[in-house]
Specification:
Layout lengths: L6 H13 L5 E2 L4 H10 L3 E4 L4 E4 L10 E7 L5 H13 L2 E6 L8 H4 L2 H5 L3 E6 L5 H8 L4 E5 L11 H8 L7 E2 L5 H22 L1
Parallel strand pairs: 4-5, 4-6, 6-7, 7-8
Antiparallel strand pairs: 1-3, 2-3
Helix pairs in contact: 1-2, 3-8
């Protein structure tokens, strides 16, 4: 978690991980801090859309263990979705992305139901009234991890309306993380995929 950390602190952590040949990322890094880290460690790459700092070559360094898909209600949810996508990819997950597929134009989601069903786990990211995870949960049997975002007009209360809607989802079994927490959703998805991969290895 890079917010509140200095460039020197982030650089020190990145250097320690690089010495161990381990992939690394820092989330929620402001652009000015990221620029300082990049100047100090040229191998680090900044993804401005998601505010993530990646150790160069970090994505897909770990063998692929399973598949996930990140689906968003709208394009405004993409920064949080990208945080989830990059994190999962770094952890060895093959990640598909279906962006701007919200319930306001439900055909966009229905046209790609088969893409959803191919994934081991689905991360559904939405703001406004937060209905997307409920709809997805009614269409698939896979685990659905819901991420409320702070996107929306005044009555959305910076994501609280979406959070409460997701917690009250009538699609049983939908898991909900905190507002704008793409990283947390990704970590939950990776746990699911790691468990599935371990069971497959035991059976083979």
């Amino acid at each position: 978690y890079g917010a509140g950390k200095t460039a020197r602190q982030i650089s020190a952590i990145m250097r320690e991980l690089a010495a161990k040949n381990a992939p690394a990322l820092a989330t929620r890094v402001p652009a000015d801090v990221a620029a300082e880290v990049e100047a100090d460690i040229p191998e680090v790459e900044y993804r401005a859309d998601s505010r993530i700092l990646l150790l160069a070559g970090g994505e897909r360094q770990i063998p692929i263990k399973g598949a996930a898909i990140v689906v968003t209600g709208g394009t405004s949810d993409m920064p949080v979705a990208e945080e989830a996508r990059i994190t999962m990819s770094l952890c060895g997950v093959e990640v598909d992305a279906l962006y701007d597929a919200g319930v306001a134009g439900i055909h966009r989601l229905l046209d790609d139901v088969e893409r959803l069903r191919k994934a081991d786990v689905i991360v559904a990211v939405a703001g406004m009234e937060g209905a997307l995870p409920s709809v997805v949960g009614g269409l698939v049997s896979q685990p659905v991890i819901a991420v409320p975002t702070s996107v929306g007009y005044g009555a959305s209360f910076n994501g609280l309306a979406a959070l409460l809607a997701m917690l009250n989802s009538c699609a049983s079994g939908v898991t909900v993380v905190n507002i704008d927490n793409g990283f947390g959703a990704a970590c939950a998805a990776v746990r699911v995929i790691n468990t599935l991969a371990a069971r497959k290895r035991t059976k083979s």
